[in-house]
Amino acid sequence: MNDPCVILVNPQMGENIGAAARAMFNFNLRDLRLVAPRDGWPNEDAQRNGAGALENMQISIFDTLEEAIADLHFTLATTARPRDMTKCVYTPRGAVEAMQTRSGSGAKCGLVFGGERAGLYNEHIALCNGIITIPTNPDFSSLNLGQSVLLLCWEWLSAQDNSPAAILQTGDSFPAQQAAMEELFQRLELELEHGGFFKAPDLKPVILRNIRNMFLRAEMSDQELRTFHGIISALIGKKKRPD
Amino acid sequence: MNDPCVILVNPQMGENIGAAARAMFNFNLRDLRLVAPRDGWPNEDAQRNGAGALENMQISIFDTLEEAIADLHFTLATTARPRDMTKCVYTPRGAVEAMQTRSGSGAKCGLVFGGERAGLYNEHIALCNGIITIPTNPDFSSLNLGQSVLLLCWEWLSAQDNSPAAILQTGDSFPAQQAAMEELFQRLELELEHGGFFKAPDLKPVILRNIRNMFLRAEMSDQELRTFHGIISALIGKKKRPD
Q1: Percent share of chain A, pLDDT over 90
Q2: What string of DSSP letters covers A116-179?
Q3: Closest-approach residue (CA) in chain B for A138
Q4: Does A97 lie at the interface with B, CB-CB under 8 angstroms?
């Protein structure tokens, strides 16, 4: 899978170039292309705000967007404003899917971002295969350059990442097996019976089922199960003492 | 659907509080809770970097995390470091799914973030229902506070957003209908035949199929179809002129 490159067209503040670089490297992208940065290159603010990312990336400088994307096969331009052009408009996630499809067959893709003040001009957008628009609160839609780059790089990484949406981290311990849970329920039922917990015998089955559900939802580990047996023992002992 | 709130525990720099607020408001979240901000509240740097977001949000200050989350039902703590605790660890997308499920049944959820220097302590994490870890490049994993908040708020908004992954924006024009495309193909074939384009007659069907595929992939609009008819006319004229 070819990772996409990021192209910043006429970026103004070095600080934002640094933030964009850091965001790329956070999510493992390393090909940053700058088209005519306002303050030239290298840039001290970029270096300072890049926090060690710039040194680990490939950074190239171009005079025009045409030159910057000459070796690419599929480029998408980010813009907040709708343009009067017949072009496919992608969400960030849709854009990443479209790039994955192309990268998978060997194409090299690029994400194109405009400068802070004016964004991309129509001439820039006409050079690209499609448009990305990030959905935001219509009353407060401005994302800065670094944040837009962060968001797209994050979408790229998370599309590659196939870790499960959630894992139960149990450390050295293991999830408790059903048989061990059953043993706990049996013991608890017995001790609750002794303690006079079931006032209305006909409700006992329902109450026991509710208790089971509560404990099963907790998905105890072996260690926690042992702890819970200890809790029962302690409570029984405590209850007996006052007698 | 209840939107989640964002809780910043011991945030240090006002600038980052402002950035977090801006990121929330960009993606339509409005309940920001601060636990013992280092420099007190209100904070000038936060105000300046909040760029108009703070005024549109509900901001509350608490002494402890316990108080800040007292009215919530499901809280997730963001942390980069694995902790020795039996807790569910979510990806950002998994976290948003888990919160959606709860919000859907009326629960109020919270996203808890630690301060810049030390993050969340184990005592904070023990108060939460689960953990969120943002997958990053292991060699460059540090995201700042504002960026982490941005990323989670974005995931929340994009989970609510059901716009299609891509739309073909055709402006005032409409996509060309198949019959009109067919007419174009017929005309093109005729003109190519006249121009002596098909050198090897047995290859003609394959070549025509390839040409069709190329044009259908472009998904022309009505307007573009008319333009293309114009192109053919102009090329024929041009070709005829030298004769």
Answers
A1: 78
A2: TTTB--HHHHHTSSEEE-----TTS-PPPHHHHHHHHHHHHHHHH----SEEEE-TTS-BPPHH
A3: B26
A4: yes
Beta bridge partners of A109: A74
Angle in degrees, CA A42, A17, A33, rounded to 5: 75
Asked if B124 and B114 touch (Cβ cutoff 8 Å), the reply is: yes
Rounded Cα distance, A159 and A1, in Å: 12
Q: At residue B2, does pLDDT exceed 90? A: no
Please tell me the distance from the alpha carbon of residue A81 to that of residue A79, in angstroms, as a whole number. Answer: 6
User: Chain A contact for B141, CB < 8 A?
Assistant: yes
- CB B133 within 8 Å of CB B89: yes
Between A20 and A118, residue with greater pLDDT: A20
Residue B182's CB is within 10 A of a number of other CB atoms, namely 11
- List, as ranges, residues 178-207 from A with C-beta within 8 Å of B: none
The rounded distance, in Å, linking the Cα atoms of A174 and A196 is 34
In 3D space, the residue among A199, A203, A188 whose CA is nearest the CA of residue A235 turns out to be A188
How many helical (H) and strand (E) elements, i.e. helices and strands, does chain B have?
Answer: 9, 8
Distance of alpha carbon B103 from alpha carbon B109, whole angstroms: 7
A52 lies within 8 A of chain B by CB? yes
Chain A interface test: which of B57, B140, B173 (most A C-beta within 10 Å) = B140
Residues B92-145: pLDDT tens digits? 999 999 999 999 889 999 999 999 988 999 999 999 999 999 999 999 988 999
What is the per-residue pLDDT across A188-200, written as a single tens digit (0 to 9) for each?
Answer: 999 999 999 999 9
Q: Is residue A105 within 8 Å of residue A113, measured between CB atoms?
A: no
- Evaluate whether A243 touches A237 at the Cβ level (below 8 Å): no
Residue contact A23–B147, C-beta within 8 A: yes
Compute the radius of gyration of chain A from its Cα atoms: 29
ipTM of the complex: 0.87
Unique residue bearing structure tokens 């025509």: B208
Give the C-alpha separation, A170 to B82, whole Å: 11
Which of A5, A48, A23, A4 lies closest to A145, judged by CA? A23
Contacts with B, A 148-177, CB within 8 Å: 150-151, 154, 157-158, 161, 163-171, 173
- Three-state SS at B168: strand
Number of neighbours of residue A117 by Cβ within 10 angstroms: 8
Do the Cβ atoms of B86 and A173 come within 8 Å? yes
